[in-house]
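cron nightly-structures :: item 1 of 1
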Amino acid sequence: MNYGLIQKILYKLSSRIFPGFHLFPQISSMPPKKKQKLENPTCLHTCNKTSFAKAFLPNDIYRQWLLDYIAIIHQLADHASHALKFYILSAPTFTVNEETIEAILYLLNKGEAWHPRKEAKKAWRDCLLPYVQRYCHIISFVHPNLQKEQQSINYLTASMMTNLKVNVQEHFMQMLLWYINLRLDVKGQKQRLKSDARNAFFARLHYLKSIFLFDIVPESLDDLCNDEDVFERSRVSPNRTREARIA
């Protein structure tokens, strides 16, 4: 129902029936009320540009619990890297993947109390439990038994695996290239060889490095020789390539 329209009609009728006297005076519309800031906000997090303490104003207990939770996660991440190294050095054969890191994190958190449901995780538990127990015994590590840890362990697993793939693999590649250059005496060959021989030497060096860096992966020695022949035939000067394209 439009009360504003009814009010205008009654105002006009009263002005005609009783001139100079308004039975229903016209009321001006009130401005909208401003939203008042709450002294005790219902929402803990107000924005993403604030200090950690201000983000959880009303609840000191929850803030302290969150700090303790983060401290335990950092502790698990630190010990997981050392436990992984201990497993690599102690086991006769080892496998490092996301399942390995995930199982080590769960075992560090709960120890024998961790009982996964999936058969694959049960196998990893049985395989890694002796090494994690021995590591915890050596350093006197007490399992924090953190509850609701699945999301944090998933994040730590992905983070540690990324670190292994990027940092460790990159460092290994750099050391491998350094060894190849040292073994083949690249600096000495660069000074001794003439231009044509030097170009051929560096072409073969580039091909060799591409194999070690997995740019070219031959399946057998015959494929390796065939790939090298193809590589040599593909080494055409820019002028000859341009002439072939024009033709």
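cron nightly-structures :: done
Residues 230-247 have pLDDT under 50 and may be disordered.
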